[in-house]
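Worked Example 4.2. Read the sequence first, then its structure tokens.
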Amino acid sequence: MTNLPIRNVLQKPDVAGRMVRWEVELSEFDVQYEPKGLIKGQAGSIWFLSVDGSSNQQGSGANIILEGPNGLLIEQALRFSFEDSNNQAEYEAMIAGMLLAKEMGAKSLLAKSDSLLITGQVTGEYKAKDPQMATYLEYAKILKETFAVFEPVHTPKVQNALTCWRSSPV
């Protein structure tokens, strides 16, 4: 029994590496996953999301770090198979991170991004004038409502956790 939604992670078709090997190894033992239930005080745990999207002539992608309770740390690097602008890559990173946090059961999420435009649009400080950016913003707002608490925070690039994590995904 575990209090982490490991079944969700193991059943995702795009999960690679060690987690997939664990799923294969455990499948032969007919392992069943049962949630442990919340321990008092864990229901309001704050999750931390750091995202960074980038785009250049070689392509575009995103880096995501999700930190949860009890030292849980999930790092993902995504490469997009479509062309997009740097701002679109930043939105893709934020949305992918929000979806991951939602899948992991986060209720309170602090999302850090080095994109002042994206964090400003999601907080309502800035408006999305471009139709494509407006579409991303609307989807981010829908996802935002799935959390009890969601706070996007602009973090300068030099302070962004992802700067130290890996180089650009593209």
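Now turn to a second chain, presented in exactly the same format:
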Amino acid sequence: MDDLAQNWSRLTLSEREGPGCCLNQEDSTKDFCIAAKFFTKRALNIDVIARTFTPLWRARNGFKIQNMGDHIILFTFDNKVDVDRILQSEPWSFDKHLVVMERYEKEEAIHELKFNKASFWVQLHGIPIRYMTKEAAIKISSVIGDVSSPIDPKNSDGGSFL
């Protein structure tokens, strides 16, 4: 035990090695990331996840995938457009379990992400015709959470529902 304490005390930085390191924007990576938490107790198979999402996402130049532990997977893309499209298409599931995704800006440790929000498409049925407006849909939907509108509104025209 004394040997361990002695070795530990020798692990210090000299004046020259000490503080003084500043990282800036040029030192960071130029890629775009999605951190995903898989809400399942089953072990995750990275190869199966990659084979599942590759045809669904159709990323322009593909993506890299990394297991970060604790059922968190990091997907790395070379362009922002793919990331925006994938996040806009939520919710995602894998093996019948929810996958919560967040844009990962790499400003904080990945295990500090909360993964406490998921987007869902909601249909409102039985609304009187006079209230079939975007404003009414936002007001009614806000009862269950934050409301975001699709980027392309023509894809959300429900006909007999909002």
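Notes for the reader: The radius of gyration is 23 Å. The mean pLDDT is 85.
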